[in-house]
Design goal:
By secondary structure, this protein is of the alpha/beta class. It is about 35% helix and about 20% strand. The protein has helices at about 10-30, 50-60, 90-100, 120-125, 130-135, 170-175, 195-200, 215-220, 225-230, 270-285, 290, 300-305, 325-335, and strands at about 1-5, 40-45, 70-75, 110-115, 140, 150-155, 165-170, 175-185, 190-195, 240-250, 255-260, 265, 315-320. Helix 3 (about 90-100) packs parallel to helix 5.
């Protein structure tokens, strides 16, 4: 796992950051909650295969062969902006994942997207998505262009969203939801952006009926990170692929200090995979917000765990390396997963 920070800091300074982060983690380890006997567990698979086709071969060998067969499948990638990977989904990873899922013959296969930093259709065009979709028979749904009938209102009493939020109907009605996310910090209040934060792109920016701006309310709220987690109560989570070959350890989401862990992660639990992603960021030295305290004290993860979206503690996460380098990475990350 390599560090290629673009900020010009020396290797000695990077080492010092890592030492400080590891010291903070060691201090918090004693406070990490042990696994309860009845607590559900989740596996995060890790591979250092640089080729996404090979990485997905290893991941899908652990999954049911008919995972997507005959189902209404919705894919959520990361196209918040038109910036290159790791700001957005890497073209080779998206192509390999779409090809793999299409080969399983879903009854309907849709990529549903909304960009937060740019016009979604233009962002997708710049990323080559229309050509990819044509090759694989993939339907592309631009969420900004949906009318009121394209959304489902999500409202329940304990939400931090004052008037709830609108989830794209495609996600609400899907029989299988797969997402591929990136490894990044988030300087606009999310603190980090991985699987849980990627779900923000499944929510309406504004209500097409009256113009109410959900994203303005989200980014202005002191409860932003809890609100991010709450989105994932509204749809299913069947598989998350995190392309962590590169990532941003500071900055983000569209640019930042680059690191190259050289990994792919996969899980059927978005909370577990985000927790491991936070551990990776801490391994390289990250922002004060992401480095602070036990991993499950991070507000996105704490709220998601409280809502039952995924595992409730780091102790409930199993790390499984899918190749020799993946096993070594698992051994490195396990002590940081506190």
């Amino acid at each position: 796992m390599r560090d290629r920070g673009n900020s010009g800091r020396t290797g000695m300074e990077a080492t010092r950051r890592q030492a400080l982060a590891l010291g903070a983690l060691a201090a918090s380890a004693a406070r990490a909650r042990p696994l309860r006997a009845s607590e559900p567990r989740a596996t995060v698979w890790i591979t250092a295969a640089g080729d996404p086709v090979r990485a997905l071969d290893l991941v899908f060998a652990r999954l049911p062969r008919d995972l997507a067969s005959g189902k209404r499948l919705v894919l959520k990638a990361n196209f918040n902006s038109a910036d290159p990977f790791p700001a957005a989904s890497a073209p080779d990873t998206l192509d390999a994942l779409v090809a793999r899922l299409a080969s399983m013959r879903p009854s309907r296969f849709t990529l549903a997207e909304r960009s937060g930093m740019g016009d979604t259709r233009a962002v997708l065009r710049q990323a080559g998505v229309p050509a990819l979709a044509a090759r694989h028979g993939l339907e592309v749904l631009v969420l900004d262009e949906l009318g009121p009938e394209g959304w489902v209102a999500v409202r329940w009493p304990d939400l931090h969203w004052r008037r709830g939020f609108l989830l794209a109907r495609a996600f609400a009605e899907a029989e299988l939801v797969v997402q591929t996310c990136c490894l990044k910090t988030h300087r606009f209040g999310g603190h980090f952006t991985m699987a849980l934060k990627n779900a923000v792109g499944a929510v309406a920016k504004v209500d097409p009926a009256d113009g109410y701006d959900y994203m303005r309310k989200l980014h202005a709220s002191p409860h932003q990170r809890a609100m991010i987690a709450e989105i994932s109560t509204a749809f299913r989570h069947d598989l998350v692929i995190m392309d962590a070959r590169k990532g941003f350890r500071t900055g983000g989401p569209e640019s930042g200090t680059l690191v190259e862990p050289g990994l792919f992660l996969a899980s059927r639990d978005p909370v577990a995979i985000d927790a491991v992603g936070v551990a990776i960021l801490r391994r390289y030295g990250t922002t004060a917000e992401v480095a602070r305290g036990p991993i499950f004290a991070q507000e996105q993860l704490a709220r998601a765990a409280a809502l039952g979206i995924g595992v409730a503690s780091a102790a409930a996460i199993e790390l499984e390396g899918l190749d020799e380098a993946g096993r070594r990475a698992s051994e490195e990350l396990r002590p940081l997963l506190v």
